[in-house]
Amino acid sequence: MEEEEVIKAPEGRANKAGNYAKWSFVIVIALAAGIIGFFTIFRTHAAQATVERAFDMVEKGDIDGLMDCIDPLGELGKLWTENTGGMRDTVTSLLEEYRLDFSSLKFAARAEGDAAEVELKGGRVTVYDQGEEGPPAATLDLAGSNLVFYVERREGLWLIEGVNYDLAEMLSGDQDLLPF
Questions:
Q1: Mean pLDDT of the chain
Q2: For the chain, which terminal residue's Cβ has fewer other Cβ atoms within 10 angstroms, N or C?
Q3: Tens digit of pLDDT for each residue in 155-170?
Q4: Are 164 and 146 in contact (CB under 8 A)?
Q5: What is the Rg, in whole angstroms, of the alpha carbon atoms belonging to the chain?
Q6: CB 50, CB 71: distance < 8 Å
Q7: DSSP secondary structure of 9-78
């Protein structure tokens, strides 16, 4: 009987070690699948990241940082360089007069090759008078704005080429950019 117990003891330890290895393997595979799935589902496309960075630069009032997100050879870059319709002057004075705070921005990106469209699906912008404390001058809901950014990859960088609005016409018109 003692010999039978001696044989079962190593066999039991081997089974426990085997079970431990199996469960460890299963846990590692499940974690890897979860991480891969998370990044596949929630990964932000690089074109969308460029548009988000542009909004961040506007929020900071950093015009040079904003222009780093714009393709100088694209529609927006040309409008800026040529100051068409006073675009550069208008944007500069807007950021000098107001502080914009974007929140809950939602985007949808569609990309094919080196071109992408990034649509603003929702969010809010709260507008404050620059340098003044107190309540906001306005809060605007961005849902339904139908704003689409055309983004292209040039030399490995995603840059905003244009938008689906005629900015030159908007800027040259009698309408104000902000509704207040």
A1: 82
A2: N
A3: 999 999 999 987 766 6
A4: yes
A5: 27
A6: no
A7: HHHHHHHHHHHHHHHHHHHHHHHHHHHHHHHHHHPPPHHHHHHHHHHHHHHHT-HHHHHTTB-TTSHHHH
